[in-house]
Amino acid sequence: MNCATIDATESALRVFREVCSIPFGAYPSIEERRGIPEGEHVDRYVPPSVGPDVFADRLGDWLQEFPVAILGGCCGTSPGHLAAARRRSMMESSGEIDRQSA
Ligand SMILES: [Zn+2]
Q: How far is CA 17 from CA 22, 60, 88, in A?
């Protein structure tokens, strides 16, 4: 799933989890598109709607909830967003994040 909003991507992942028999992953867009008509292409910088920590939290949640083969970022993501997501995924895999007490 590529270049959809975080919420739309999560909805698609819920469907993929039920119906996909092949590996899948997601690269959400986090452009702040309020005020831009849906589907309209823009040839300018559109700032991100969420910061690195929120982005990393959502992707970290997806790692727990969905059998994703790969996660990344599309429009609006920065190296800082991806670095935060990587740190979060490493914490998830090392058990540093205790889901029971969260
Ligand atoms: Zn994109």
A: 10, 16, 22
- pTM to 2 decimal places: 0.85
> Cα–Cα distance between 5 and 2 in angstroms, integer?
9
Q: 75 CA to middle of ligand 1, Å?
A: 4
Sole residue written with tokens 């700032």: 47
What distance in angstroms lies between residue 100's CA and the mean position of ligand 1's atoms?
A: 34
Percentage of residues in the chain having pLDDT higher than 90: 74
- Indicate the domain borders of the chain: 6-94
Distance CA 12, CA 16 (A): 6
Q: The tokens of 76 are what? A: 């609006």
Rounded distance from Cα 21 to ligand 1 centre (Å) = 25
If you measure from the C-alpha of residue 65 to the centroid of ligand 1, how many angstroms do you get, rounded to a whole number? 23
